[in-house]
């Protein structure tokens, strides 16, 4: 049996280092000066191999995951989040789920969940905690209005859970959190927010086309072009042309 330690998990990741990926990842995740991932460091380990190590070291505690999350190495933080999501999936009691959600939110506020892949790997799962919570909208609004890019991305990605509620066995789909958060982020300046909002709107449209069309009828003219293109990607060519023609800037 593998001894469950942070040092062991880091050593296991190191066995999968790919020099080509190590050179490529800083460019792909924009870690250069002035870029959104500035200062991030990479080993060059692919996601499937990070997931393999996460399974091998699934016994790490929250305190040990926190240690991983405070690493400057991107793959260490990704490993920690994959482990945390695995714990979330196994949490059956309300108390256990709240503890894990609070821990995740702490990581978000502390800035450890600080690239788009880290957000997208984790936020859609922890957004499940917010389904049916009376203060969910308040939290989403607070995150969406944050000056911090990754908190804003977390806000919209949290709502993926509500979109998928029926599939998750958590009641009927609820598009209101997505639509409300999208309205707040409508004029966000960052391309990564445009992409995430457009993606979530497209997911809504995949389930309820009328809901998407209603949003587009109100906001297509002022949506950032990338957001609009992502939102209408699955529509037929003629309808895409119609909505793009409505764009005024």
UniProtKB/TrEMBL annotation:
Gene3D superfamilies: 1.25.10.90
Pfam families the UniProt entry points to: DNA_alkylation
Family annotation (InterPro entries): ARM-type_fold (IPR016024), DNA_alkylation (IPR014825)
Protein name, entry field: Unannotated protein
Organism for this UniProt entry: freshwater metagenome
């Amino acid at each position: 049996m593998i001894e469950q330690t942070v040092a062991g998990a880091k050593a296991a990741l190191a066995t999968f280092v790919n020099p080509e990926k190590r050179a490529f990842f800083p460019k792909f995740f924009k870690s250069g000066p002035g870029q959104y991932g500035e200062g991030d460091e990479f080993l060059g380990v692919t996601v499937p191999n990070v997931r393999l190590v996460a399974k091998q070291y699934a016994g790490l505690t929250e305190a040990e995951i926190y240690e991983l999350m405070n690493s400057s190495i991107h793959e260490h933080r990704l490993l920690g989040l994959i482990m945390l999501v695995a714990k979330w999936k196994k949490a059956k009691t309300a108390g256990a789920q709240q503890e894990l959600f609070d821990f995740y939110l702490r990581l978000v506020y502390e800035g450890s969940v600080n690239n788009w892949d880290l957000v997208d790997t984790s936020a859609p799962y922890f957004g499940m905690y917010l389904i049916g919570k009376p203060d969910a909208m308040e939290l989403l609004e607070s995150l969406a209005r944050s000056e911090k890019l990754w908190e804003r991305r977390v806000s919209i990605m949290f709502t993926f859970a509500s979109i998928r509620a029926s599939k998750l066995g958590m009641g009927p789909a609820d598009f209101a959190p997505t639509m409300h958060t999208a309205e707040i982020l409508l004029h966000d300046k960052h391309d990564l927010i445009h992409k995430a909002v457009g993606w979530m709107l497209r997911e809504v449209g995949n389930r309820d086309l009328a809901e998407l069309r209603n949003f587009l009828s109100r906001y297509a003219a002022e949506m950032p072009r990338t957001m609009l293109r992502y939102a209408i990607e699955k529509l037929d060519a003629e309808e895409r042309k119609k909505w793009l023609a409505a764009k005024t800037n």
